[in-house]
Amino acid sequence: MNQMFDLTGKKALVTGGSRGLGKAMAEALIEFGAKVVITGTREKIMDVAKEIGAIAGIQGDFLLDGQVEKVYIAAKNVLKGSPDILVNNAAIQRRALCEDFPDRDWNDVLSVSLSAVFKMCKLAAKDMIPNRSGKIINVASMISFFGGLNIPAYAASKGGVAQITKSFSNAWAKYGLNVNAIAPGYMATDMNEALIADSTRNKQILDRIPAARWGTPKDVKGLTIFLSSNASDYVNSAVIPVDGGYLGS
Ligand SMILES: NC(=O)c1ccc[n+]([C@@H]2O[C@H](COP(=O)([O-])OP(=O)(O)OC[C@H]3O[C@@H](n4cnc5c(N)ncnc54)[C@H](O)[C@@H]3O)[C@@H](O)[C@H]2O)c1
Q1: What's the CATH code of the domain at 133?
Q2: What is the Cα–Cα distance from 144 to 118, expressed in whole angstroms?
C-alpha cells in the first residue's frame, strides 16, 4: 500500500455508520488500517460493527440532549484516546410541502444534520489541536449548493455543513487540522427510497447525471481515504462533490 494513504494505527470515529454511505466510509477506513468506531441509533450498530471489523458500535440518538457528547466520550474510551479522524456522516431527511413544513421536522433535521456536526467538530478539535494534527470530514450534499424540492430543513442543514466546514477550517488549519467536506450526489441508499420509487423524479435526476447512474456507497470510499490520509495534508476547507458530474451538468 502506498504510505501516503496508509492509515495503520489511526483512530477514527464515523457517525451514522450503520448503513449506507457511513458504513462504506467506515469499511474503507478499516481496509486502509484504521481502528474505527461507528455510531448509530439502534442496538444493531454492535452487529454492524462486528460485520465490518470496527472495534465498536456505539448507540446514540442525536435528537436527544447530551447524546453527541456521550457518544464522543464513549468513542474515546474504546479507541483508548482521541480520534485522529472524525467523519460526521449522520443526518436525517424530512420531506413536506414548504408552506406546510412542520416546525418539529425543521428542529429535528437541524439537530441531527447540523447541530450534531457542529458539536462533534468542536469536541474533536479540542483534542486534535494539542496534537497538531487531525482530519475532520463532514458529509455535505448537492443540497449544500442548491435548494432541492420540499426539503427546506435539509437544505438549510447541508448549506450549514458546508459553511461550518469552511469556518472551522479557517480557525484550525494553522494547528495542522484538515477540515473538509464530501458532497455526495444522488446515491442509492435508504435515505433516497422515496425519490427512487418516484418514477418522474427518478427520471429527472438520472437525465441530469452525466455518469448516467445513481451513485453507490462504494463511490465515496476513495475520497474518504484521501481526506483521511497524509495525501490531503494541504487540502483545507474544500467541499468536494462525488456526484457523477451532476454539478457540472
Ligand atoms: N444518499 C444520498 O443520496 C446522499 C446525498 C447527499 C448527501 N448524503 C448524506 O450522506 C450521509 C449518509 O447518507 P445515507 O444516504 O447513507 O443515509 P442513511 O439514512 O442510509 O443513514 C443515515 C445514518 O445516520 C444515522 N442516524 C439517523 N438518525 C440519527 C439520529 N437521530 N442520531 C444519530 N444518528 C442518526 C443512522 O443510524 C444511519 O447510520 C448523510 O449525511 C446524508 O445527508 C446522502
Answers
A1: 3.40.50.720
A2: 16
Is residue 89 lining ligand 1, measured as CB closer than 6 Å? yes
Domain range for residue 102? 3-189+217-242
Indicate whether 129 belongs to any domain: yes
**Residue type present at position 222:** G
Predicted TM-score (pTM) of the model is 0.98
208 within domain boundaries: no
Q: Is 187 in the pocket of ligand 1 (CB under 6 A)?
A: yes
Q: Whose alpha carbon is nearest atom 23 of ligand 1?
A: 16
Beta carbons of 138 and 177 less than 8 angstroms apart: no
Instruction: Find residue 14's DSSP bridge partners.
Output: 38, 87
C-alpha distance from residue 56 to each of 15, 21, 61, 64 (Å) = 12, 18, 16, 21
Task: For ligand 1, say whether the CB of 18 is within 6 Å of any of its atoms.
Answer: yes
Strand partners, 56: 37
Write out the three cell numbers for 84.
Answer: 485522529
In tens, the pLDDT along 68-107 reads 999 999 999 999 999 999 999 999 999 999 999 999 999 9
* Tens-place pLDDT, residues 164-219: 999 999 999 999 999 999 999 999 999 899 889 999 999 999 999 999 999 999 99
200 in any annotated domain? no
Residue 66 makes CB contacts below 8 A (sequence gap 6+) with: none
Cβ pair 88, 136 in contact under 8 A:
yes
Total number of domains constituting the chain: 1
- 53 in any annotated domain: yes
The amino acid at 178: N
Strand partners, 178: 135
Which three cell numbers mark 219? 463511490
